[in-house]
Amino acid sequence: MVQKRITRTISDKELRKSGYMTSDEFVDRLIPGLKEYLSKNWGVHNKNELHHPEDLISNATIYMEVAYHVLVDFGVAPLEIQKEEEDE
How many domains does the chain have? Predict the structure, then answer.
């Protein structure tokens, strides 16, 4: 007996519901929060103050690590997923 393999293409709409985005969209969403984070940590006294790139990148890395853990712990678009489950 030969089994038929059913393949299904996932639409962009379905992927977007699951939180998928383009690289440009990701960067556009990331940058405002990162700028605010760095400003509050390093620009409190003067937003034009100069800082060493190693200090800035180490803080940006911390920001990214926290963002990563939030995504892992809470998922992408958890409110949308919950709403969708409630509607079913």
Answer: 1
- Which pLDDT tens digit goes with each residue over 25-44? 999 999 999 999 999 888 77
- At residue 57, the pLDDT reads 96
* DSSP helix/strand/coil, 25: helix
**pTM of the shown model:** 0.69
Q: For residue 82, is pLDDT > 60?
A: no
Do the domain assignments include residue 26? yes
Domain contains 14: no
CA distances (Å), 14 to each of 6, 17, 35, in order? Answer: 18, 5, 31
Domain region containing 29 = 21-42+51-87
75 CB-near residues (< 8 Å, 6+ apart): 19, 81
Q: What is the CA radius of gyration of the chain?
A: 20
